[in-house]
Amino acid sequence: MKRTLGVLVVGLLASGLVAAPAEASSVWTDPLVSSQAIAVETAAFWLGNGGANLRNATPYNVQTAVDKVFSAGGVSPDTKPGSVPPLAPTTSGEPNAKTPTTWGKVFFIGADGQPHWCTGTAVQSQFRNLVATAAHCVYDTQGSDATLGKWVFVPGYADGTTPWGLYVGKQAFTHYDFPSYNDYDRDYAFVNVYSGVIPSTSGELTNFGSLVDNVGGQGLAWNQPLDSSVDVFGYPAGPHPDGTRPYTGETLESSSGRPTPALVPSLKAEELTAVDSSFTGEGALGSSWLIRYHKSSGMGYLNGITISVADTDGNLRYDTSFSPYFDGETNGVYKAAAASWSGSLLLG
Q1: Could you give the CA distance from residue 62 to residue 233 in angstroms, rounded to a whole number?
Q2: Which residues contact 96 (CB under 8 A, 6 or more apart)?
Q3: Alpha helix (H) ranges present in 26-168?
Q4: Which residues have C-beta within 8 Å of that of residue 120, sequence separation ≥ 6?
């Protein structure tokens, strides 16, 4: 359920940010760390003991599936269609590393005090420091609605390793309606991250450069017609309702389909889009929906984020994924995040 606001929200004012008057009224922002020293401690928490906390993290299982889905809704553009192009990586990183990838996992501490992960995607921005994921993979919807603790992004994550660095979240941006009203029509977030770090041979943290320079960044598109196929990329890991587990969460998976409008009352969501996908919900939260995706370059335009899944035909197998519709207000949140600087994690 989308709402129009006429004033800047408290979260934006408190941060000291100044954003464009036409779009800033819908932006909410919160710091993910209270100081640079805490950010360094966060990186050490995940990278210490050979990445033990990364390996022990489990896929986030909050709001992973819904029922009572209706093939209807009020999806409609609020301004002209627009887009920001993707950006290829500009550095080679480690000489023996795999091909850089914009996709990876966001890790954090949940309301249960345990380490969890969702899917995240690097998006191009002015300071090459932006990650997109589901808002409820950034905000604690089970507790105080505060941000989730020790939030980091690891592109190309595999078995405790960080082939393209680990990036600590500094500032989160989402739509005002999500933390204020739990409106899942706005369940998306853009997170500024510090420059990456990796552990040295002695175990100390070493600078690794900016996120998008290292792995590239997907573009962004908004107010697009629902007449083009989307490619969905993520790390599904949980079971289907029948108990089968076709995915491990260890490798990037993809699916494709044509989006349609959807209404999901249990999420207070009247303007979602749905796409046929066999992804299970756990692990796939935050999966990116790309239009105009080119396999050769690995680049496209982010046009959706998986926030939940459903078994719509009752055969005990998930068959549909859901995303908010990206409109002009989504672009307003992105623009505020894209203009926010984060800098290096390590000083000197």
Answers
A1: 19
A2: none
A3: 36-56
A4: 103, 104, 105, 106, 131, 132, 133, 137, 153, 191, 286
- Digit-coded pLDDT (tens) for 70-101: 887 678 889 999 999 999 998 755 544 568 89
CA distance 129 to 84: 15
Strand-pairing partners, residue 36, are: none
Q: pLDDT digit string (tens) for 297-318?
A: 999 999 999 999 999 999 999 9
pLDDT at 209 over 90: yes
Are 322 and 274 in contact by the 8 Å Cβ rule? The answer is yes
Q: Does the model's pTM come out above 0.85?
A: yes
List, for residues 146-186, the tens digit of each pLDDT value: 999 999 999 999 888 899 999 999 999 999 999 999 999 99
Could you please report the per-residue DSSP string of 129-194? Answer: -EEEE-GGGTB-TTTTSPBPEEEEEEET-BTTB-TT-BEEEEEEEEETHHHHH--GGG--EEEEEP
Q: Which of 265, 255, 337, 247 is nearest to 304 (CA)?
A: 255
Q: What residue has token string 């055969």?
A: 315
Can you list the alpha helix ranges (DSSP code H) found in 182-245? 211-215
Transcribe 284-309 into DSSP letters: TTT-EEEEEEETTTTEEEEEEE--EE
